[in-house]
Amino acid sequence: MQQTKYFIFYFFERLFKTLWHLLNFAGGSVALLLNSVRAIFTPPFYFGLFVEQCYKLGLRSCSLVFITALSTGFVMSLQFGYGLERFGGKLYVPKVVGMSIMRELGPVLTCLMLAGRVGSGIAAEIGSMNVTQQIDAIRALGTDPIKRIVVPRVLAMLLMAPLLTVFADLVGIGGGMIISMSELNINPDFYIYEGITSLKVTDFTFGVTKTFLFGLLISVTGCYYGLRTTGGTQGVGQATNYAVVTSSILIVIFDFILTKLFWILEKI
Amino acid sequence: MVQRHEQPTELELLIKIRGIKKFFGDKAVHDGIDLDIYRGEVLTLMGGSGTGKSVLLRSLIGLEHPDQGSIFFGNKDICVLSEQQLIDVRKRIAYVFQYGALFDSLTVKENLAYPLRAHTQLSEEEIHHRVVSTLSKVGLEKSIDLLPSDLSGGMQRRVGVARSIILEPEVILYDEPTTGLDPYNTRQILNIILQLKDHGVTSVLVTHDMHAIFSVTDRVAFLKDGKIRALGTAKEIEHMKDPVLQGFISGESW
Ligand SMILES: Nc1ncnc2c1ncn2[C@@H]1O[C@H](COP(=O)(O)OP(=O)(O)OP(=O)(O)O)[C@@H](O)[C@H]1O
Ligand SMILES: [Mg+2]
User: Fold this and answer.
1) B155 located within any domain
2) pLDDT of residue B2
3) Tell me: the pLDDT tens digits for A248-257?
4) Which of A42, A247, B3, B103 keeps 20 to 30 A from B86, CA to CA?
5) Total domain count for chain B?
6) Is residue B125 part of a domain?
7) Interchain CB contact of B90 with A (< 8 Å)
8) In chain B, whose CA is at the least distance from the CA of A42?
């Protein structure tokens, strides 16, 4: 009896804390986003820092995205190839693989990977700058951490998440073609022809459009947790952890919402 | 070693702190602080750990916002300025962080060039000259191309001082400038404080390390329980009868 009471109490305490944390996050990250938007449109502009972040966050993620997309293409092609073979539907492989990669797997898997690599990197870097007072130093030297630190990362992710997704789409579909050719005996000419004739432009654009939001989620979440890091190295670890978990969950949730929205739009 | 300098003869009030109160949760860190800081003086804030010395120093450039009271610098109240408006204040009042707070992704040169690039239109060549001459003031011109991680703690702190003085501010705030430093680095930093004083620069120091500081400071303010408990010249403070103060100075209590 005593124990049940304790567990119920514990459960509600956790629930309350989580909700409180979520509310704080929602308020804080929206405020951060608004401040960043204001900073984007007021001088001075630091173009060099933006380019640097595009390189660090975007280009340096290429190999990760490449491997993810290639294996996704392989796996999808294998699964659909052998799965559909049972119903004599092997020739649908190019369509199904192309569509699932462009609409869903390209954008979502790429951005989940970026949440892991980039989101954690942002939170850890800003978090350790924070606990070593470098963020304070930026302010004390009469400059703005939002402009110097947050804006370049947010803009870089807004640009690089869609670009990397386009890259992932191509690699994934290419990977699908390799397996179709070698394992399923599908002629590559047929694969490409099918792909081009059956896929619609909207399949591509909807997939890529989502990633603008995902890129924003990853960068803003990372910056938010980095900037509110307290408590030394342990705090940095925790900030990194929160940043990855929160942005991954948000990506999955917003993916559903946007997909639903896009289908509604497409049906009109 | 370093020499004591004369008190400034004519006193110009530079910073006027009035009725500062600051709470963290329901704990009052500052409970009504009044303090005047005069141009050209070296003022030391002293007090036990957790008495809010750093918080007070941070409030002076708007890194922390008191819940009540005001801090006048010229005719402006620092407590009500926005981050944008604080930029002007921060060009004139510099802050030296306890561990230097150097940007660890930038070289020593780029650390020093940072405020110049942000606030002046100097050419690359002029920036280089300014950086070298400022580094030589702290005796580190050889380290110009190193990264902060290649420097010892004392050197990092001296680079931090150099970065703070490169814009030639009127006031410099030092948080524990000598704590934990060897005698050589301590003397270097005290020398810088005295040299700047000769140029009319005002310094506000926070420290536990009284014996080093007593040789450079003009006045000392002793913080206790959120208030200024004692204020006077270094000599006066040394001879004050207050048992709490004397206990602190002799290291018997805080
Ligand atoms: N951001 C903060 N949140 C909560 N409490 C804080 C914060 N900053 C400071 N404090 C509290 O305010 C008090 C004063 O802090 P402060 O750093 O000014 O002390 P200090 O006098 O500089 O001490 P020390 O000599 O140890 O550096 C401390 O008790 C500290 O716990
Ligand atoms: Mg302190």
Assistant:
1) no
2) 47
3) 999 999 999 9
4) B103
5) 1
6) no
7) yes
8) B84
The predicted model scores a pTM of: 0.89
Beta carbons of B40 and B54 less than 8 angstroms apart: no
- Helices and strands, counts by H and E, chain B: 9, 10
CB A57 within 8 A of CB A160: yes
B54 CA distance to ligand 1 centroid (A)? 7
The answer to whether position B111 is within a domain reads no
Flag if B63 and A139 touch (Cβ within 8 Å): yes
pLDDT value of position A104: 92
Q: In chain B, positions 96-155, which contact chain A (CB-CB < 8 Å)?
A: 97-99, 101-104, 114-115, 118-119
A-chain CB neighbours of B99 within 8 Å are 132-133
How far does the CA of residue A70 sit from the closest CA of chain B (Å)? Answer: 34
The three-state DSSP-derived secondary structure of chain A is: CHHHHHHHHHHHHHHHHHHHHHHHHHHHHHHHHHHHHHHHCCCCCCHHHHHHHHHHHHHHHHHHHHHHHHHHHHHHHHHHHHHHHCCCCHHHHHHHHHHHHHHHHHHHHHHHHHHHHHHHHHHHHHHHHHHCCHHHHHHHCCCCHHHHHHHHHHHHHHHHHHHHHHHHHHHHHHHHHHHHHHCCCCCHHHHHHHHHHHCCHHHHHHHHHHHHHHHHHHHHHHHHHHHCCCCHHHHHHHHHHHHHHHHHHHHHHHHHHHHHHHHHHHHC
> Distance from B97 to chain A by nearest Cα, in Å?
8
Distance from CA of B92 to the nearest CA of A (A): 10
Q: What is the ipTM of this complex?
A: 0.90
B3 close to ligand 1 (CB < 6 Angstrom): no
Interface probe for B, chosen from A46, A130, A133, A149 (most Cβ of B below 10 Å), is A133
Of B63, B98, B102, the CB nearest to A140: B63
CATH number at residue B215: 3.40.50.300
Mean pLDDT score across all residues of chain A: 92
* pLDDT of the residue at B64: 93
User: What is the per-residue pLDDT across A26-57, written as a single tens digit (0 to 9) for each?
Assistant: 999 999 999 999 999 988 889 999 999 999 99
The answer, yes or no, to whether any atom of ligand 1 lies below 6 A from the CB of B226, is no
Q: Does some domain include residue B76?
A: yes
- Check if A136 contacts B (Cβ < 8 Å): yes
**Residue boundaries of the structural domains of chain A:** 60-267
Could you tell me the CA-to-CA distances from A246 to A80, A96, A144, A161 in Å, in that order? Answer: 32, 31, 26, 17
Tens digit of each residue's pLDDT (9 = 90 or more) over B78-109? 999 998 899 999 999 999 998 989 999 999 99
Q: Determine the structural domain holding residue B239 and report its residue range.
A: 13-101+169-250
B29 C-beta closer than 6 A to ligand 1:
yes
How far is the first Cα of chain B from the last one, in angstroms, to the nearest whole number? 29
